[in-house]
Design goal:
- The protein is an all-alpha fold.
- It has one domain.
- It is 77% helix and 0% strand.
- It is built from nine helices and no strands.
- The mean pLDDT is 89.
């Protein structure tokens, strides 16, 4: 297995380890962020039930994102055939384009990967990558949303923002 793949795996595991215990705080954070975003851009578009549905979607998206970082299922991200197919499908189905962000993440991972790293060194490097790059694909989601806000994109944007706030709080 390539050094960069091992370090990328450590990066995803570190994200999972940081975010997994924060679900309750994340829901509170997403409620605050969602309320502010709705008040700012869509004040008359959601009633109480609509707001609750959007917050529920945010919580589900948080869980979904966390599972992509889950070390138990991480091997699916690193199976090169599945990875290429999954990546191509994601770029076709997603409303944001994360290719540049992934390229930058991979370049950073390759730069930080060194032979014979201990588990402790790997963990420190993963933390450094998180500090420098954030959680993939948050930057793509946030930037694309801010360039062209849309109510349907709000849950993804809120989750990405909440994840970034959560990991920045921990670094």
């Amino acid at each position: 297995m390539k050094l960069s793949t091992v370090l990328l795996n450590a990066y995803y595991e570190a994200l999972y380890d940081r975010l997994h215990p924060l679900k309750e705080q994340a829901v509170e954070r997403m409620d605050r962020l969602l309320s502010a975003e709705i008040d700012k851009r869509y004040p008359r578009m959601l009633n109480e039930d609509g707001y609750a549905a959007y917050l529920e979607a945010c919580a589900a998206f948080w869980d979904e994102r966390l599972e992509t970082y889950n070390p138990t299922g991480i091997q699916y991200l690193f199976d090169t055939v599945r990875s290429a197919i999954s990546y191509e499908l994601e770029t076709q189905l997603s409303w944001y384009d994360s290719r540049r962000e992934l390229d930058a993440l991979m370049a950073l991972v390759c730069l930080k990967a060194e032979p014979d790293m201990t588990a402790e060194q790997m963990s420190r490097r993963a933390d450094e990558i998180i500090r420098l790059a954030g959680a993939f694909p948050d930057q793509s989601i946030i930037q694309t949303y801010l360039e062209k806000p849309d109510l349907e994109k709000v849950p993804d944007y809120i989750v990405a923002t909440a994840i970034e706030e959560s990991i920045r709080q921990k670094t």
